[in-house]
Every structure is written in structure tokens, then in C-alpha cells.
Amino acid sequence: MRQRLSLGLVIGAAAAMALAGCGSGSGSGSGSSGKTTLSFFGADYGTGPANSTTKYWDAIATAFHKANPSITVNVQTVNWTDFPNKVQTLVQNKQFPDILEGDTAPQFAQSHLLYSDQQVLSPAVLHNLMPTFLKDGQYQGTDYGIPFTTSTRALYYNKKIFAKAGISSPPKTWDQLRTDAAAIKAKGYIGYGMPLGSEEAQAELLLWFLGNGGGYLSAGGKYDINSPQNVASLNFMKQLAASGDTQPNPGGTDRKTVWAQFAQGKIGMVLGSPAVIPIIQQAGVLKAADYGTADVPGKASPLSDTLGVHDDIVAFKAAGTSHQAAIKQFLDFVYQDKWQLQFDNEYDLLPATQSAATTMAKDATFSAFLGNITNSINYPSLANWTSVENMIKTQVGQAITGNPAQVLGAIQQTASSGS
């Protein structure tokens, strides 16, 4: 989730022209007949044509059109791999869609490109969104980002490997994790999968930071990436890798790789979201009884606050106010429990609405992850977070064989200069 790129400079250059009357270049419009066409651009969460997210949104658009014949929604989705570059191209060409799903709000809101949540959602829908994620889409005190899909993290562990290594229960502390990883390694398996490659290093890193009382921000909301707690966390991670208790080259390994290796029964422990489950099922190696989930270990005790991740919907006002009412009608339709649950069951993610979460919590597979949402810690909502996030993705892996303090110091310097 949240595979984003830095668009600040590009957005700033395009915003003035767009809002001066250029409108959306994505095929949306309002004719004299009273009919409106909206453009929707989103990230594709599928693994191929069979479960492409385009099918999901097309089904919604078709059902919505039957209920609202005067409004048509043109849908386009792009795989996560191509999503950042495609969004950049749309912004550069001032082809802002009416609705974008898969990015964050602050960088767009900073350039006055967006409707606020209150302008495009009815009060009932707005109040049904999970507050912990809704506040994360704020810019200067106003909500712009509308959480659409969410997830939290837990420790996955292989019970069969644990039994072979003589481990009776999942670790609760870092020292226990290190001891368990060494025991698993002695049996010929990878002890702990540590993905610090460019796919999602920021998630793995934050979970370790939280385990030592750190994080990306200080209590005052400023970047504190190179805090003593964070440096100590990364040093521990470096030592774990140096001892051979992780997979080779953690700094160059992506999340998808360690999740696949866990599903194949090659790794004893990984941190993951509910999205690991379909990977396990597809691999066909582990049965449900062969693995479990537990709270993320911390330095002294399990995390009480784990990472919460969400992908947002934002509504652009480049077409002027002529599309606002239609956007509101469509988004109110989208946030029905029916569609929230269908999406999350298809892609093994969690909902963004409280009512859908209540229904989904009845499934034991997801109840543990949903229980972590209330106390979840989200990524920073500062306007330059996307730039900082990308720097973490591409540079923090170097700390595993280099100097953690220097690497975090460089990221902190860049973060502070742009906040």
C-alpha cells in the first residue's frame, strides 16, 4: 500500500493553470443535457487480469449509473508498479481526475487542488469513517484525504519451524526474537525475514522504531528520524543481519520476496499485513494450522501501538464546482458496506468504515488485525512525507552494511529542510 512519489514541485507548477480554468483533461465533463461524466483513476491491487481492481470499480460504476442515470463514471486503474509514474504524468499534463484512489492528500491540498472531505461526503458517511485514519489526511486542520482501504501489522510465525527449533511460543521482545531466529537458523531455515528494499522499507523500519519508543515524529509533530532510540533500533537490526539470522542482503530485499518465502515455508518469522494470507494460500505449502500471528515484538515488550496503513481517495476540483455534487453522490455510494467488504475480501485488506469493520471482525482471520486499528500509528501527514518516504525506501537499506546514524541523519536533514 501507499506506493507514492514526490509530486510537490510538479503539483505546484500545474496548480495555478488548472484552477484558472484548464479543467480536467481525463475525459470528464458536463453537457447541456444535464449529464455528467466523472473520471476515476486508481491503483490496481490485483495480481493479474482475473482479479484486476478495474473489475471492482467498473461494477460500482455500473451499479451507480443504474441508480443515477445522469452520471457516468469512467474508470481507469494502474498496477502499483506503474502507479507513481502515471500519477506524475497526469499531474504534469494537468489531467487531474475527478477522483483519485491510492495516494495521500497533503501534497495536493497544499496546492489547493482538492475538495475537503466535508464538501464531497454526506455527514453520515463521513462520521462512519475510522477517525484514526481520517485525521491522517488533514492539511492545516482540514480533512482532505478519505481513507478507503486499511491494514495493520502483526508478526507471522511458522509453527512447524518453531516446533523443530524447540520454540514453544512467539517472541515478545527483541532478545527473544534474536534467540528464536538463531535457533531457526540452526535448523536450516531463515530465522527472520527483514525487508528493507525499496518496496516498503518505511513500514518495516517504523515497526522497529516503535518497539524502542521511537518513530518518525517527535511528540511535538516534527521529524525526529535520527533520534537516539531510532539509531539504536537500526543498530540492533544491523546486528541481527550481521549474525546471519535474517535472509541475505536485507537492504536489497523487498517485502514481496520475504512474504513469498514465508509462504513457501522457508522463513520462521516475518512482519506482515492480512495481505500475506492469500500469498500463503496460493503457495499451497502451509495449512491454516501451520502458522499463526502475534503482536509485534518490542525491545522490552510487545507493541501496544502497531503500524496502521491506509490508502486514500481524494477529490480534485480542477473541473470547477460543476462536478462537486456528482462526486459526492458517487462517493456516498462507494462507501456502502457492500462495496467496502467486497474490496477487502477480494484483496485481504481491512475496511475504512466502522460499520464494515464491525461486520468483518466476525471473521477470526481478520479480527486480530482489526483489533489493532484503535491504537495504530500512521505515517506522518506532513506535506513532504512522500519525499521523505521515498528517501527511506531507497537509502535506509544501506545502513545494514553501513553506518545507521549517518544514514538516518541524512534522511533527517532532508526531512527537516522540506517540512
How would you sum up this structure, described in words?
The chain has 419 residues and is an alpha+beta fold. It is built from 19 helices and 13 strands. It has helices spanning 8-22, 53-67, 83-92, 106-109, 117-120, 123-128, 131-134, 159-164, 174-186, 201-210, 228-242, 255-263, 276-283, 324-334, 337-347, 354-360, 364-371, 385-395, 404-418, and strands spanning 29-30, 36-44, 71-79, 99-103, 138-139, 142-143, 146-152, 154-158, 190-192, 267-272, 291-294, 308-315, 350-351. The strands form three sheets. Strands 1, 2, 3, 4, 7, 12 and 13 form a seven-stranded mixed sheet that branches. Helix 18 packs antiparallel against helix 19. The chain is globular. The model is unreliable at 2-27 (pLDDT under 50).
Topology:
Blueprint: H1 8-22, E1 29-30, E2 36-44, H2 53-67, E3 71-79, H3 83-92, E4 99-103, H4 106-109, H5 117-120, H6 123-128, H7 131-134, E5 138-139, E6 142-143, E7 146-152, E8 154-158, H8 159-164, H9 174-186, E9 190-192, H10 201-210, H11 228-242, H12 255-263, E10 267-272, H13 276-283, E11 291-294, E12 308-315, H14 324-334, H15 337-347, E13 350-351, H16 354-360, H17 364-371, H18 385-395, H19 404-418
Parallel strand pairs: 2-3, 2-4, 9-10
Antiparallel strand pairs: 1-2, 4-12, 5-6, 7-12, 7-13, 8-10, 8-11
